């Protein structure tokens, strides 16, 4: 059963057709590279899946059941997590605090509920270990590399037992070595049976990690094929319109 | 090579990193601005005791500690606001409003157990109004609380008809004892400061409220994305700050034995200075309860020393003002260094 299935999703903003009849299904553990030029509809599609926008028409199925998202929290409850680049990290807090931000562990201390720092550190440490990341829970995020920061952001998704993780340009602003680190993290997620939608402009990154490539052009899905059967040249052609369909 | 260096080099890299990150308690303490401010305040106290024969007298120390307590209590609230990424300029006016409410009610014959809660309630309403305008109307904290500074002091004047109040009805003695008395040899305001500092420190470090407050100050967007109720949190932070100012107002009435509408004038500056000197970062995300107290202590000791050393009190503003600038400059140099 597919982790996520989109049936004829369209999204119109007045006269502007941001998405037209997009159908796509993603299996558990599958990594899909979502590509397209600026304005092709990538962000809109992600926002529809993440519950930011309701589609104008079409259906979203999560694990075989029809989903009806009104707010992002609905999507989160259904197991969809979004990894925002650097946006959702607080530099002044520790890695563990960031992982648990908004859903801190607490324990009873006399009449008070206090934060369970030790518990959060241990649990965050386990998550980093699962991601095979060197990130240490007690470190301040301020002092971390771009790759480690991504690990913190991604560990958040493991915490909530996400089934689908949407990643928006996770390798855009980091060094080459850190890109490798992030691609490893994506493989770890996939090994845990989590479906990953990776939005990226960076062709080599996508081909290194994605099982399948989906290309959007002017709001239409013009390709959805196994990465092994495609090539960067073909995808470039599909993005620009030099190749109509594949 | 010193023996210390030899042992360092024989360890693995990660151990060395660990050691530099989670150093011994001593080196961790000395790396904090708060520690050095504390040392400065302590040195100033020692110097004053040696240079003057008036500083270390019971009477002077009693006065210093009480003054320091007033600034310190409000600085606790201010630290919360600053750490959350905001600023509250209306605290000085909230002090006078709270003082006026308790004074007017009690002078009209009300008992203290109505006067004091009413004063605190009035103060918290100021915080509520600030918070709603900042969080829900999305207005800059600077503008909202600057307006509040003027509006709230004006309310205090209206309430009292701009007259001095020094009669507090049947419970006068209790009110005067509350702010002006001492328990176990310690001035009451100082005890209140100690209790409130403990509570604030606990809230900052051990509750979700504190954690969310610092997260919001560090990256408001992130706090929003992770589902923290940012708006409600902001309102609560400004109410907390106003409550601290309200408590100070009640205590000051008791200490002074009378209220005039210029009470707490320009106090916001000392309080912001105390918070910033104590390590609160005006950019948000950083601050401690202990720091607020230490900052308030340093300011009060310096103020007192100017008086005792016979330097014109006109210089006070120059000192307090330069302290804010120096503390922020200090912080900028440090962050510039660490970002290299």
Kindly describe this structure.
In chain A, helix 5 packs parallel to helix 6. In chain A, 32% of the residues lie in helices and 29% in strands. Chain A has 246 residues and is of the alpha/beta class. Chain B has 340 residues and is mainly alpha-helical. Chain B has one domain: ABC transporter involved in vitamin B12 uptake, BtuC, CATH 1.10.3470. Chain B is 75% helix and 1% strand. Chain B is built from 16 helices and two strands. In chain B, strand 1 and strand 2 form a beta hairpin. In chain B, helix 4 packs parallel to helix 15, helix 7 runs antiparallel to helix 13 and helix 10 crosses helix 11. Chain B is globular and about 55 Å long. Chains A and B meet through strand 8 of A and helix 11 and helix 12 of B.
Key features?
heterodimer; A: 246 residues; alpha/beta; Rossmann fold; four-stranded antiparallel β-sheet; B: 340 residues; mainly alpha; ABC transporter involved in vitamin B12 uptake, BtuC; two-stranded antiparallel sheet; 75% helix; globular; disordered N terminus
Short description:
The complex is a heterodimer of chains A (about 250) and B (about 350). Chain A has about 250 residues and is of the alpha/beta class.
- List low-pLDDT spans of chain B: 1-10
CATH superfamily of the domain at 4-88 and 161-240 in chain A: P-loop containing nucleotide triphosphate hydrolases
Global shape of chain B: globular
Sheet with the most strands, sense and barrel status of chain B:
2 strands, antiparallel
Question: How do the helices and strands follow one another from N- to C-terminus of chain B?
Answer: HHHHHHHHHEEHHHHHHH
Count up the helices of chain A: 8
> Number of helical segments of chain B?
16
Order of helices and strands of chain A: EEEHEEHEHEEHHEHEHEEH
- Roughly what is the average pLDDT of chain A, rounded to an integer? 85
Biggest chain-to-chain interface with counts:
A-B, 25 and 22 residues
Terminal CA distance of chain B: 27 Å
Task: Walk across the major sheet of chain A and give the strand order.
Answer: 6-9-10-3-11-12
Distance between the termini of chain A: 25 Å
CATH class of chain B: Mainly Alpha
Q: What is the beta-strand fraction of chain B?
A: under 5%
Q: What are the low-pLDDT stretches of chain A, counting only 5+ consecutive residues below 50? A: none
- What is the average per-residue confidence, as pLDDT of chain B, rounded to a whole number? 84
**Proper CATH architecture of chain B:** Orthogonal Bundle
Named CATH architecture of the domain at 4-88 and 161-240 in chain A? 3-Layer(aba) Sandwich
**Share in helix of chain A:** 25-40%
